[in-house]
Amino acid sequence: xxxxxxxxxxxxxxxxxxxxxxxxxxxxxxxxxxxxxxxxxxxxxxxxxxxxxxxxxxxxxxxxxxxxxxxxxxxxxxxxxxxxxxxxxxxxxxxxxxxxxxxxxxxxxxxxxxxxxxxxxxxxxxxxxxxxxxxxxxxxxxxxxxxxxxxxxxxxxxxxx
Length: 161
Fold this sequence. Notes:
By secondary structure, the chain is an alpha+beta fold. The chain has a single domain (10-158), classed as Cytidine Deaminase, domain 2 (3-Layer(aba) Sandwich), CATH 3.40.140.10. The chain is 27% helix and 21% strand. It has 4 helices and 6 strands, in the order βαββαβαββα. The protein has helices at 21-33, 74-85, 110-123, 154-158, and strands at 10-13, 46-52, 57-61, 91-98, 128-133, 138-141. A hairpin with a 4-residue loop joins β5 and β6. It starts with 9 loop residues before the first strand and ends with a helix. The relative contact order is 0.18. The mean pLDDT is 95.
């Protein structure tokens, strides 16, 4: 038997003023877009801003539905829209913000992590992930892999033994 350890690294900021201008603007855009979230059942509003390598920004919010689980999370709405509108662009940064929150930010659900990871693997370039919830600290991860270290992709599924 071997015991192994896996470490992840992320940066924590106390305030948006500590960030570079682009990251601060992405967070502010996502926070302003929280008003467009459709969350009448959970009342938990989430917004996402995606920065592409073509300098375009795409926004998305969570969209709930009475026929749960037919709704979509903000980060999936944003990334699906980004890749539908700009299919050749690479995703550089994904910002995820929530209206509620205290000291630490909420992190994406497993489904969103897998979707983000597939785009990162497909484009063969890391996607930065920035998390902020209400008045929480800001966490920045340099890769989706830090949030989903044992991800799988089509190559794993289609492998022939």
